């Protein structure tokens, strides 16, 4: 005898759709915050990667992963991380791109934010 799972299937699909809406909204928020604060720290390019950059992967335990091209000699890395985290209201992992062994993968698969000077 087969069980009808249509109600469960519908509920799971609705939950996935809700998390996808949240992912898209959070991604937009992160990109907007980078636009607001990153240039003040000398950052001109950053990549959002991980679950936030991949449809269907963002969930209630997700954090926000950002890799930045950090200017040589620039100070304030942790200030930038704290500022972004406060403004988006979520924990973040922010990493300097030149210190990451998988930087090429992030450049290929991540979502690029790039400062366009006015």
From TrEMBL:
Domain of life: Bacteria
Any one GO MF annotation of this record: transferase activity
Pfam family of the protein (one): Polbeta
Residue ranges constituting the Polymerase beta nucleotidyltransferase domain according to the UniProt record: 42-110
Record's protein name: Nucleotidyltransferase
Biological source species: Candidatus Promineifilum breve
């Amino acid at each position: 005898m087969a069980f009808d799972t249509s109600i469960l299937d519908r509920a799971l699909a609705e939950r996935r759709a809700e998390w996808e809406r949240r992912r898209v909204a959070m991604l937009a928020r992160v990109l907007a915050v980078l636009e607001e604060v990153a240039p003040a720290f000398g950052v001109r390019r950053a990549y959002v990667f991980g679950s936030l950059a991949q449809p269907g992967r963002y969930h209630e335990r997700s954090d926000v992963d950002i890799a930045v091209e950090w200017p040589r000699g620039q100070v304030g890395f942790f200030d930038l991380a704290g500022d972004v985290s406060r403004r988006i209201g979520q924990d973040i992992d922010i990493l300097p791109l030149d210190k990451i062994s998988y930087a090429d993968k992030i450049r290929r698969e991540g979502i690029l934010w790039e400062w366009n000077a006015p």
